[in-house]
Q: What sequence folds into this?
């Protein structure tokens, strides 16, 4: 069995698989890359995880996630910055080029979006030198506005770029995630803007369908099972010069409850049907 060489299985898509199982299933399914999450890595232990990755032969496309640093200055913010430094070290140890950052939502009792976004910028300013020393990129992921209060005050690719472009593109970039940005009327313009400066650090794909579940975090679907038109987005990312792995990242209870091999198999087929043709047309 083989898969497109740029397809990466984000570990969140097979959430209930242990790290060793995830690596084994993804490798056996013919994929070359996997996106890892910090929690399963911690369960295995970092040293063991590094060895498991090496034994699998897979490359690690990214490590998810760090961030969550919108709080005012104080002990909680200092603890968050320290935790992000640990995440940077883990990313480097695993050989991943990218650490995905989710900004965090509004602090409890606050309505100050602008201030929260400024604190995101300040936190990245503190961490940029650590990332540069580790040789990895901090990738700011804008999340759909429905998550603005509890998960990410950075809601658009433009907002993410407004922060990222204050730093060297080798150290700070952005994530283009179709689920979060497909709706944005400026998304193609912002992808081009990101590409012009070399700021695209990751491209993630999954689909959007309604009705949304009660827990909107679990609203993602296989590419092709929803309303997103992937062709203009993928072509824009290609034209912007992104040549890295493309992760399928899905949060969906029914998919989590399925057998990991079945999920990887279906993901591979969905990727071929929705993404691969545009990649091949561009010969990348």
A:
């Amino acid at each position: 069995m083989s898969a497109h060489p740029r397809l990466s299985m984000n570990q969140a898509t097979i959430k209930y698989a242990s790290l060793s199982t995830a690596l084994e299933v993804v490798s056996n399914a013919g994929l070359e890359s996997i996106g890892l999450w910090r929690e399963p890595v911690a369960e295995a232990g970092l040293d063991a995880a590094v060895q498991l990755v090496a034994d699998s032969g897979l490359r690690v496309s990214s490590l998810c996630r760090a961030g969550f640093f919108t709080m005012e200055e104080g002990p909680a913010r200092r603890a968050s910055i320290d935790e992000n430094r640990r995440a940077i070290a883990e990313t480097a140890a695993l050989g991943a080029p990218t650490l995905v950052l989710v900004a965090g939502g509004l602090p409890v009792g606050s309505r100050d979006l602008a201030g929260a976004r400024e604190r995101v910028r300040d936190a990245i300013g503190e961490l940029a030198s650590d990332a540069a020393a580790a040789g990895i990129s901090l990738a700011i992921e804008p999340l759909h506005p429905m998550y603005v209060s509890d998960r990410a005050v950075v809601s658009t690719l433009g907002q993410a770029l407004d922060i990222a472009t204050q730093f060297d593109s080798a150290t700070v970039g952005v994530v283009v995630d179709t689920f979060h940005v497909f709706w944005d009327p400026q998304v193609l313009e912002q992808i081009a803007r990101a590409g012009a400066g070399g700021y695209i650090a990751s491209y993630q794909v999954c689909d959007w369908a309604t009705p949304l579940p009660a827990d909107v975090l679990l609203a993602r679907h296989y590419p092709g099972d929803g309303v997103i038109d992937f062709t203009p987005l993928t072509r824009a990312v290609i034209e912007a010069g992104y040549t890295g792995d493309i992760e399928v990242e899905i949060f969906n209870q029914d998919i989590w409850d399925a057998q990991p091999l079945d999920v990887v198999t279906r993901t591979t087929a969905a990727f071929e049907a929705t993404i691969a043709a545009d990649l091949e047309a561009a010969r990348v």
User: Anything to note?
Assistant: The chain is about 45% helix and 15% strand. The beta strands are 7-10, 33-37, 59-67, 98-102, 137-140, 172-177, 200-205, 207-208, 220-221, 246-248.
